[in-house]
Amino acid sequence: MGYLNVQGYARRAELVKGRSLLEHLRDLGVDINASCGGMGQCKQCLVQVNKSSMLSPMTDSEREFIRQPGFRLACQAYVVRDDDTVYWNNRELGVYEGELLGLSLDIGTTTLSMYCTDLETGEIS
């Protein structure tokens, strides 16, 4: 399963194939304006998307309005894939298998310390 993570929100939404980003954002309680009712006409639901490989191609309405890469209208961007693939710097690393862990090294003049970090929660062990 893929997930939608929103900067500034502690919760995340499980992506559901066939639903728009607008629907997912509203499920998370994100106050996002879409006064046109999701028709792609008001252009008020502009969002920045870090990885769009799980989303439908841009619509004509989006192509007319959006000039910067990485932006979409939440009402027009639909989930077309819901598999959970891990990306880093826009490079696919593999399928999510339950944990994302990182290793930090502190190399001193006389001591070597290592820390295991949960990259999803930030917890250090």
Verbal overview:
By secondary structure, the protein is mostly beta strands. It has 2 domains: 1-83, Beta-grasp domain (Ubiquitin-like (UB roll), Roll); 86-118, no CATH class. Helix content is 10%, strand content 28%. It has 2 helices and 8 strands; from the N terminus they run E-E-H-E-H-E-E-E-E-E. A two-stranded antiparallel sheet has the order 1-2. Strands 3-4 form a two-stranded antiparallel ribbon. A two-stranded antiparallel sheet has the order 5-6. The longest helix has 7 residues, at 21-27. The radius of gyration is 18 Å and the shape is elongated. The model has no long low-confidence stretch (mean pLDDT 86).
Question: Secondary structure elements and their pairing?
Answer:
Elements: E1 3-5, E2 12-14, H1 21-27, E3 46-48, H2 60-65, E4 71-73, E5 85-88, E6 91-95, E7 101-107, E8 112-118
Keywords:
125 residues; mainly beta; 2 domains; two-stranded antiparallel ribbon; 2 helices; 10% helix; elongated
The CATH class assignment of the largest domain is: Alpha Beta
Helix proportion of residues, in percent?
10-25%
Biggest sheet strand order reads: 1-2
The helix/strand order is: EEHEHEEEEE
Radius of gyration computed on alpha carbons = 18 Å
CATH fold name of the largest domain, please? Answer: Ubiquitin-like (UB roll)
Number of strands: 8
What's the overall geometry? elongated
Largest sheet: 2 strands, antiparallel
Could you tell me the mean pLDDT? 86
- What oligomeric assembly is this protein in? single chain
Low-confidence stretches: none
